[in-house]
Amino acid sequence: MIVKKYVVNNMNEAMNRIRYELGQDAIIISQRRIKKPGLKGLFSSKVLEVTAAVDNKKSSIDENMKSSIDAIKKVMEGKNQDKKAVQIDNFSKNEILKEMHQMKEMIAKISQTAATTSDSNKNKLQQVLEQNDLTEEVIKRY
Questions:
Q1: In this predicted model, what pLDDT tens digit does every residue of 94-104 receive, in sequence order?
Q2: How many Å apart are CA 16 and CA 4, to the nearest integer?
Q3: What is the pLDDT of residue 62?
Q4: Nearest to 99 by CA among 39, 40, 91, 9
Q5: d(Cα 136, Cα 132) in Å, to the nearest integer?
Q6: C-alpha dihedral over 58, 61, 62, 65, to 10 degrees?
Q7: DSSP 41
Q8: DSSP letters along 82-104, please?
Q9: What single string gives the DSSP state of each residue in 45-62?
Q10: Rounded distance between C-alpha atoms, residue 68 and residue 100, angstroms
Q11: Which of 26, 41, 56, 111 might form a disulfide with 35, Cβ 3.0–4.6 angstroms?
Q12: 2-8 and 27-34 as β-strands: parallel, antiparallel, unpaired?
């Protein structure tokens, strides 16, 4: 885990620096107002000290995705080589096609579940307002 402290003027500046240095997966652990370090700190306004962390371990999902991408690359390289290489890569090609089919099924299930839950959570009035192209802000009021 990587932990870093940032001394900034406002939270927007902190977020920009954290996202740039640690990435999108970084989380803010703490924030507090402090005086600037040194002699200037006695006479100036307080600044914000933000502590952020990111886990540098790769998840198993990332590893699986990387292995799938590597398999796709092998298949693509096999198309440019002779027939023997293509036959060797057929096993990988079949695995990739199987994984792609499974992913399509999972996406279809997720989108169907999301559509069902969003419709069931809305009452009749909200559904009518949505059908009449009103903004989400207006719909949420009712």
A1: 788 888 888 88
A2: 14
A3: 63
A4: 91
A5: 11
A6: 160
A7: G
A8: -HHHHHHHHHHHHHHHHHHHHHH
A9: --EEEEEEEE--SPPHHH
A10: 10
A11: 41
A12: unpaired
